[in-house]
Amino acid sequence: MRIGAHVDPVDPLAAAAERGAEVVQFFLADPQGWKAPEPRVDAAALIAADTEIFIHSPYVLNVATTNNRIRIPSRKLLLAHATAAATVGATGLIVHGGHVGSGEDLAIGFDNWRKTFAYAAEQGGFATRVLIENTAGGDNACARRFDALARLWDSVGEFDVGFCLDTCHAWAGGEDLLDIVDRVKAITGRIDLVHANSSRDDFDSGRDRHDNFASGTIDPDLVAAVIRAAGCPAVVETPGGTEGQSADIAYLRERLAQ
Ligand SMILES: [Zn+2]
């Protein structure tokens, strides 16, 4: 299994080398903003590199929402990021599962997801496979609890959608990590990427605060077991910069070698 990290977008290949990462994930635009991604001068180097590349879409996107002033730009920006991700040779584009407002019907959120893929198909399809990521919080999330995830997949499964499993989000979201890969695969049929993170918070806290394996609340052996069972690349999205992430990567490699 290839192990790596979410890194700063300034020089992802240098950041990967510093960490001993075989996989890198980064943003192509401000994660808190609505700007379209700019072409990258290092696109050719990124494509040529042995390092596998994943792109994370901005956090502000919510294709599930009933608010069309958020939903429509989210849909368009997701398509733009998929196009841009292809120019750097990315394997996948990660996007959070999104949510509807409190008191609103989740069925609308699932249908908005279906419309997102239908819209993209009309535009020629996503240039990079979209990986929907499970999220940690909220009672109206499309991909926190796996009963909701199953309904989401009923809506989008026909579109060759990928899945990204975040261990911190699953734990904080109240989904047991012990048999989680089997439970996910029973719904999605696949896991394309693991976000291997510990958590600063307790099980089912609903809080999204990542932590390093040495200090977090999740048994690190469980995270390693998830990666092994998933059999796909994994990236740490943990704090502490080069030092913190290098230690987390080394920990996972050591456990996976056993
Ligand atoms: Zn994540």
UniProtKB/TrEMBL annotation:
GO MF terms held by the record: deoxyribonuclease IV (phage-T4-induced) activity; DNA binding; DNA-(apurinic or apyrimidinic site) endonuclease activity; phosphoric diester hydrolase activity; zinc ion binding
Keyword annotations from UniProtKB, A to Z: DNA damage, DNA repair, Hydrolase, Metal-binding, Zinc
Domain Xylose isomerase-like TIM barrel: 13-254
EC number: 3.1.21.2
Presence of keyword Metal-binding: yes
Cofactor needs: Zn(2+)
Spans traversing the lipid bilayer: none
One biological process term in Gene Ontology: base-excision repair
PROSITE patterns referenced in this protein's UniProt entry, alphabetically: AP_NUCLEASE_F2_2, AP_NUCLEASE_F2_4
Keyword DNA damage assigned: yes
Pfam family for this entry, one: AP_endonuc_2
Family membership: Belongs to the AP endonuclease 2 family.
Protein's name in the database: Deoxyribonuclease-4
